[in-house]
Write a structure and sequence with these properties.
alpha+beta; 4-stranded mixed beta sheet; 6 helices; 37% helix; globular
Amino acid sequence: MLLLFSQKIETPLGRMWITASHRGVCLAEFAGTQRIERESRDLERLFNARTELGENEHTRQAAQELAEYFRGERQTFTVALDTPGTDFQRQVWAALRDIPFGATTHYQALATRIGKPAAVRAVAAANGANRISLLIPCHRVIGKDGSLTGYGGGIQRKAWLLAHERGERQAMPELFA
């Protein structure tokens, strides 16, 4: 049976759990969200694995890169990812990784970018199925009208992340402490 390692890290926006297989990070999620338990169970089922508290080279690298990101020293991530999903989901997640640091896009533009302009709802669903927050930057997807749309880590975190990427220094929100 495959073993997944899960490590807790501290960020300015609260604790995150980083889980990785021997191939790469498969989960990066803020603590306190309802998604973690469901996503962890899904990963164990998809990988026929069990999760242990601990770390491996991928969780350590992700922790380092995320710390650099929050300090404003990193704009892209190089840690290996292990993203079980459909071919379509993986295509959307790859397109999300191509959104430049500090930029935003919307679902229709993403659908067009992957060559499926009519698949706006499917793109939105794939974005919502992303288990790897920040490393796959789904927070960079906003409404076509410029409004903030849903984010698994919460709209306040999304707003903070987008401001951080625009270079706006801000106080750490107390609700994430």
